[in-house]
Amino acid sequence: SAKTVTILPAGVSFDVKPGQSVLEAGLSHGYAMPHSCTVGTCGSCKCKLAEGKIKELTDFAYVLEADELQSGIILTCQSALKSDVTLNIPNFELKQLHPPEDYDGKITKTENLTHDTKKVSILLDRPIWFDAGQYVQLEVEEGLAARSYSFALPPAEDGCREIELFIRQVPGGEFTGMLFDGKLDGKSVKVHGPSGNFWLRDGKGPIICVGGGSGLAPIVSLLEQAAKSPLGRPCIMLFGARTQEDLYCLERIEEIAAKWDGAFTFVPVLSNEPEGSGWTGHTGFVNTVIEQVAAQHLSNETQVYLCGPPPMIDAVTDTVLKLGIVSENIHADKFLDAS
Ligand code: FES
Fold first, then answer.
1. Which residues pair with 233 in a beta bridge?
2. I need a labelling partner for 278 at 20 to 30 A (CA). Which of 52, 102, 203, 315 fits?
3. Cα angle at 328 between 323 and 331, to 5 degrees?
4. What pLDDT shows up at residue 335?
């Protein structure tokens, strides 16, 4: 029979079915469980077992240090329950999310955003509700592994029947290859979601958003949603790209800036713009210009939202930690460009 998990200090309790992981159960109830990989490799679901017994679904010793194992640290994604348990998760955020579900979808439209990035529209069998910044998993029916992509539009009040994703072509990638050859137009896809703990947190401090490559989708979605209400928080948005040709969504960003209540600064940063192109903006990598462009917005209330390839996220995280941003206020959506 089902056993119960209680999370302290939040005081939240939910049932876990036999054989289900604690993480899976928590997510199915709409709780913002800390996690990333879901398969026992990243360690981001670590927490302390305060009371009760669990069953390891895979060996924790691959990820956890000996002293962590000793002191009762577990991975929620790899723990089923043998008894009712109490877990200690100090940074557990009390946020009600829309539980993920399976949807049948159909690719209805693809449109070029840049030479290697497409906007893909998918019509679902019924509306989906989500928070701006979250993602879905896509499974095309050709037997390829599922891929994760963020919603590129903010949520609608009545849910979204049609969703939009930004998909970047990966050289040699099987799925994106088919998509860019037009072989997936009109095809059925399985959609699972919404997922992810990337959403705009409450607060009064400045917001710094950094997007790289196709990592712009959740940032634009989140800012469009935020621009609907007067938050009174300054915002700086950095967009890291290779060349001017790789910049996209510029009209949408302009609209966000026009609607934003207070100061909104958009800073594109190009790493590979050819000499003599006439580009007068910033060059280099996003992390190297943050201090310069955000100097007056760095406080312990500043929140940072990052989405893009892992090396960019790691570099920016290092930089903002050095600039005094507290780690609880850094929210990252790391994606591996799915082939
Ligand atoms: Fe990555 Fe559990 S979510 S180890």
1. none
2. 315
3. 85
4. 66
What pLDDT does residue 126 have? Answer: 98
- Low-confidence residues of the chain, pLDDT below 70? 142, 335-339
Single out the residue of 212, 209, 204 nearest to residue 235, CA to CA: 209
d(CA 63, ligand 1 centre) in Å: 9
DSSP strand pairing (79-81 vs 54-56): antiparallel
Instruction: Identify the residue whose tokens are 């290859």.
Output: 177
pLDDT at 104 (0 to 100)? 97
Establish whether residue 26 lines the binding site of ligand 1, counting it when its CB lies within 6 angstroms of any ligand atom.
no
35 lines ligand 1 (CB under 6 A): yes
- pLDDT at position 338 is 55
pLDDT value of position 333: 84
Indicate whether this complex's ipTM tops 0.90: yes
pLDDT at 190 (0 to 100): 95
- 180 Cβ contact list (under 8 Å, min separation 6): 118, 169
The first and second tokens of residue 39, run together, are 């398969």
| pLDDT score at 142 | 64
CA gap 73, 190 in Å, rounded: 35
The CA 68 to ligand 1 mean position distance, Å, reads 15
Ligand 1 nearest atom to the CA of residue 63, by list position? 4
Q: What is the pLDDT of residue 114?
A: 94
- In this predicted structure, what is the pLDDT of residue 213? 77
Contact 40 CB / ligand 1 (< 6 Å):
yes
Q: What are the phi and psi torsion angles at 319 (to 5°)? A: -60, -50
